[in-house]
Design goal:
The complex is a heterodimer. Chain A is mainly beta. In chain A, about 0% of the residues lie in helices and about 25% in strands. Chain A starts with 14 loop residues before the first strand and ends in a 9-residue tail after the last strand. Chain B has a domain of about 70 residues: Glutaredoxin, CATH 3.40.30. Helix content of chain B is about 30%, strand content about 15%. Chain B starts with 5 loop residues before the first helix and ends in an 8-residue tail after the last helix. The mean pLDDT of chain B is about 95. The chains are: A mainly beta, B alpha+beta. At the A-B interface, strand 1, strand 2, strand 3 and strand 4 of A face helix 1, strand 1, helix 2, strand 3 and strand 4 of B. Strand 2 of chain A pairs antiparallel with strand 1 of chain B, so a sheet runs across the interface.
Chain lengths: ~80, ~130
């Protein structure tokens, strides 16, 4: 589990690890252009950091902290969107 | 992971998901404001401003072993995801000496690729085994 975060009024954000601005949540700079983002089976997953809600706590989750475990990541369109 | 904030995730878990799952969602509900992570994974729909139904299986080395992406109206098959994880785990534990043919699930026959199996798969695997 990721470490617990201080939560202020700014909406916490994350992003790919290695791009600029991933530590500074509220910067208005556009995301760094990734060199042709490509997911390929058999290749490393891009690392990222993201704020998360888990069991009553706000935590920060970094994909690379889960090395040694099987990980499932599920993206979905939005909370309260039925399916 | 979705573009919703962690605050909305909390409200969804508190008000709806915890009524479906005792104790609420046990795993982290990730927030990807702006879809920055989704873009890197190729699942961010720029026009709609949301993420599509992408599902990625990542092994203990951080390597993507499989993924599936659906448009929003169709939900996933969780059993199939679990089956795939079990298959990848079996292959990994066998250090690649075993492979799981179409329709494999725990308990069904695996294949041991090698010179003796070339042209002989029909002897050990039948098409009805592709189905449950």
């Amino acid at each position: 589990m990721g470490e617990e975060m201080e939560v202020g009024c700014a909406r916490p954000t994350g992003g790919p690890v290695g791009s600029s601005g991933d530590e500074k949540a509220e910067t208005a700079t556009p995301p760094v252009k990734e060199a042709a983002p490509m997911i390929q089976v058999g290749k490393k997953a891009p690392d990222f950091v993201a704020p998360a809600y888990q069991q009553g706590k706000f935590v920060s989750v970094k994909l690379s902290e889960y090395l040694g475990k099987w990980v499932l990541i599920c993206f979905y369109p939005g909370d309260f969107t039925f399916v | 992971m979705s573009i919703d904030s962690v605050f909305v995730h909390k409200m969804w878990d508190d008000n709806e998901l915890s009524k479906m799952v005792d104790g609420g969602v046990p795993f982290p509900m990730l927030s990807d404001a702006g879809g920055r992570v989704g873009k890197v994974f190729g699942v961010f729909d720029e026009e709609a401003g949301v993420e599509t139904r992408g599902r990625f299986i990542i092994d203990p080395e951080g390597v993507v072993q499989g993924f599936e992406v659906l448009t929003p109206p169709v939900g996933r098959n969780v059993n199939e995801t679990i089956r795939q994880v079990q298959a990848f785990q079996l292959v990994r534990e066998s250090k690649g000496t075993e492979a799981t043919p179409s329709g494999w699930r725990p308990g069904k026959v695996t294949l041991k690729p090698g010179p003796e199996l070339v042209g002989k798969v029909w002897e050990v695997w039948k098409t009805n085994m592709a189905f449950d």
